Structure prediction request, 173 residues.
Amino acid sequence: MPTKKRTDANGMSRGAVNTQLREPEIRVLRRFRLVFNAVKTHFQQVEKKAGVGGAQLWALSVIRANPGIGVNGLAATMDVHQTTASNLVKALVNSDMVAAEKNGPDRRAVQLRVLLAGSRVLRKAPGPFAGVLPEALATLDAETLERLDHDLALLIEALHADDRAAGIPLAQM
Prediction:
């Protein structure tokens, strides 16, 4: 038996928000769309040209720049959770793009290095390897970044966002 939606005196569903956006909200929403679309377009181009996802490409570039880096070092460099870095490494090893060897003094720790297939992927992939958003943020001055950080913190609070999502690369969202 179908259930009836409960509505208020104006006929709006309970819990519904006013969908009429004001001009400042519209401008900001459009700016977010531009940012998200720029990021999405970059990652689509990466995948099309390189054949790997953006997060894998970034991990590959970090490993090439730091031969012998371990999974924890990769996680720290990419500012992602260790499990995320481990999953990226697993995929790269399974694709024969990265070798994971236990050659160092601590035989428990894995040292990573890029293999020939990984070098080929990096040669044909469009940059920036970390993505367009980190590169764009790096061009901003400290004052702008501070202001942006503060304002985004307010937005995140209003969204009641899960802090754990901060450790997930944009390319995997």
The radius of gyration is 21 Å. The beta strands are 98-101, 111-114. Confidence is low (pLDDT under 50) at residues 1-6. Residues 23-50 form the longest helix (28 residues).
